[in-house]
Structure formats: C-alpha cells, structure tokens
Amino acid sequence: MTTRVEIFTDINCPFCYLGKARFEAALAEFEHRDEVEVVHRSFELDPALPADQTGPVIPRIAAKYGIGVDQAAANERAIAAQAAQLGLPYRSSGRDYGNSFDMHRLLHFALEKGRQDALLDALYAGNFAEPEPVFGDRERLVAIAVRAGLDENQVRAVLADPNAYAADVRRDERDAAQLGATGVPYFVFDNKYAVSGAQPTEVFTQALTTAWNDRTAPLITVDGDNAPACGPDGCPS
Amino acid sequence: MTTRVEIFTDINCPFCYLGKARFEAALAEFEHRDEVEVVHRSFELDPALPADQTGPVIPRIAAKYGIGVDQAAANERAIAAQAAQLGLPYRSSGRDYGNSFDMHRLLHFALEKGRQDALLDALYAGNFAEPEPVFGDRERLVAIAVRAGLDENQVRAVLADPNAYAADVRRDERDAAQLGATGVPYFVFDNKYAVSGAQPTEVFTQALTTAWNDRTAPLITVDGDNAPACGPDGCPS
Description:
homodimer; alpha+beta; Glutaredoxin; four-stranded mixed sheet; 9 helices
C-alpha cells in the first residue's frame, strides 16, 4: 500500500525550495520509495498582495519586518549558503517577491497532467536561481510551464481564466489551516504525521519510515453485510 | 483536508461496474464531495489467463464453475436487472471474457493524464453495454481510450510496450492482497476503512461520513525541533 506525502509550499518560500531537496534526498534512499506518492499543495505566504505589486525582495523584507536592508541581504546570503550545501543553485541577491496565486493555479493544472513536480521545480529554479523575475510577467510564466512539459495553449487558457483551479488553491489553504500549518514547508504523511519546516534529511527518513510501518494496520470494515462481488471463484449474484 | 477513496476493480467484474455507480450516487449527495479524491486501482480476477484466449463469457463461466449454461445466462440476466435499476446499460448476453492486464496498464497511464475515471467508464461501457468485444482487439481498445480523451499515439505506445505501467499494476495487486481484498470491487477510505462489494448506496454514504469525520484527528508531529520555515511573519533563518 502506498504512503502518501502532501507538501504544502509557496513559490515565495526559500525554505520550501530547500525542504523539497532534503525530503527528496530522504526519499531517494528510502527502501520503499517506489510506493511513496507525493503531491504538492498550495499555501500563499502573502495572499493579500495585489497581483500587480512586485519588486526586489530584499527591500520588501526589510520594510515589512522592520529590519535593515543589510540584515535582509545577509539573511538571503545565509539561505544561499544552505542551498549550496544541498547543491541547489540560489542567487544570493536580486530575486523578486510577488503574488503566487496564478502559480498555484498552474500547479493544480499540472497535477492533472502529471507534471506538477516538474512545474514546481521549474518555478523554484525560475525564482531562486535565474535572473529574470517570475512575478508580474505572464510570458515568463508560460515559458517556465512549457519547460516543465505543459502545453502552451492550455497554460495560456488557465492563466487567462482567473477562476481556473482557483477553488483548488483555496481548498488547499483551508486544509492547511485545519492541519495546523502556520508556515511552510509543511509535510503531511498519510493524513497522520506532520513534519514542519525544512528539517534535516534524517527527520524525513524517520517520518517516511513511521508512516510506512503504520500503513499495515488492518482496515476497519464499514458494514458487515455480504454484498455482491466478483472473486477468483466467480461473481455470485 | 481531502478524503481519499481507492477503488480496486477489474474490467471483467460486473459488480465493479454496478458498485462504481452506487458509490458515485453516494458521492453525488455527499456534502463534502468536492473534497473527496477517487483513484482506481488494479485487480485482475484471472491474471493467469493467456492474452490470446478470449470468447463469450457465458459458456466460460458455466465451464469454469461447473454450472449449466442456462444458469450462467440467468446470472447475467439477474445482473442486467440490477444494472437497469441503477440506469446502467447492460447487455444481458454476449459479452466476452479476456485478460485485462493491458487495460489496467492503460488505466495507470490515464491516471497520469487525469483521464482515469473517464477511461474506466469507457471500458465498462465497452465491455458491458456495447456489442463489440473489448478483449483481443487492440484497435477497439485504442478507440475506447481515445474516446476517453487520451492521445492516440501515446495510447499505442503504451500498448506496444508490455512493460509500460506493468509494475504499477503488480504493485496495486500486492497492495490489494495486503489490504485484505479477496474480490472486487473493494473500496478503501483514507487507508483506514474498507467497503467490500457492490454495497447499497447508503453503505458508501456511511463510509464517506465516517472517513470524513475521522480526518480531523490531530496530526502527530515527527521531531519537535524548530526547523527553518517561512510564515506570514517572514523566513527566520
């Protein structure tokens, strides 16, 4: 029986980028990795941000949290150093902030197309490792989605319709609140175990192992009546 | 948080066809239906059947289970009557039997493309409601898959490669055994509750309600250390 991991994430979240790599390092070494299913779910760090408001992240962070620009820049460099330890490219200055709602809508579309993980990697790379901004530029977003294997015309149709997959994003965000996620990344294993934050790889190994061992608990049968079914001995009706 | 329903099924199984309709009737009335995720999983009733062995099901059933052809035909008519009560088309004679492995491989391919449910409906309709046999005729299978919204060339590529998605089918069958499924349809709710057989709709309503109410149990946190995460108040590193 598969183990299911749901990862709540935002494109604006550098620790989501790092946490994904740490989780994947654990998964790559996990004996039952072929029976682990991963799905990415939406969490906006700043859902109230107007879609047309975008710009360099360092002065934004400094203003929002009342720290100096130097301190904000140092934080970015510290994250870049952590990324480097994981072999992840990270530009230590120059990334933008912006509203990620359209990206989350696209991630739900990509889930239907079997390209969600590829799109999330492409969005992270676009935001954290490449010089062109990913916010406020629809053509750039289309190019990233196409790079992740999605059909250009379908991507444009999703982006052009603000209602497309919007309910899926909102549902994820309600679920996140219900599951106790106050920040991201937030990992949920088989609706039972949670890992909060970009924990060390061994914590993900522990969570995978715990969830895996737990999945063999016997099922509870709902209703005991015999109902018609087919088995190796036929279909008694 | 979504509730996840896994339905083990075989194309050769008339009660899977009926059970799907009963489950869907319950789901359509379920208050939280938009937060229920359904996935179909593979179960072959006769995995040892050679792929080139196919033919009318009634004499096959009669021979296999040592009943008269008249009794086997009467069983089919009884199933057709149950199908009619659900508004499902069902030809009361003339369907074929055959090896369903290629169909299960295609259902896994369709899952990746977001068309699994549509393909299963099309396969059931092809086998139980339409006069042309679905076994032993690759062109017919391609036509059914295309009708379900899949790309013809990709479908042909999957069918031409006997290894494509074969491991997924085998994994489902191992999981079915582990979950205690000895026949189909077999419904598993959130890896915790099971419904066996084409139960009445109200049993599915009960299972959905039980699983839904259960999903709000608090998560167990794996590791208590604070790890870097981003929240509404920023990304302390």
